[in-house]
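Key result, reporting period 2: structure in, sequence out.
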């Protein structure tokens, strides 16, 4: 499920085409208030919000694309 979160794109709306984990936290909060979509997409969006809320987005960087060799660097404070 984490691989999907790091690779799947938003299929509709203002951020269509953006990778789910890269959606702005404000957009994910809007979904939480209005209701997440049903099915797997809703579960992924809820998980993305949880990861954003805990400041853990960087943990998914190595999963972004097949064969990716990204390394997590604790000193890089992007979030």
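The corresponding designed sequence is given below.
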């Amino acid at each position: 499920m984490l691989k999907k979160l790091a690779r799947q794109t938003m299929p509709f709306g203002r951020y269509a085409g953006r990778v789910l984990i890269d959606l702005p936290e404000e957009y994910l909060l809007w979904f939480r208030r209005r209701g997440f979509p049903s099915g797997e997409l809703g579960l992924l969006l809820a998980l993305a919000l949880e990861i954003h809320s805990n400041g853990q987005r960087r943990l998914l960087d190595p999963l972004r694309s097949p064969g990716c060799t990204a390394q997590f660097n604790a000193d890089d404070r992007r979030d």
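The longest helix spans residues 39-53. The CA atoms of residues 24 and 44 lie 14 Å apart. This case is discussed further under Risks and Mitigation.
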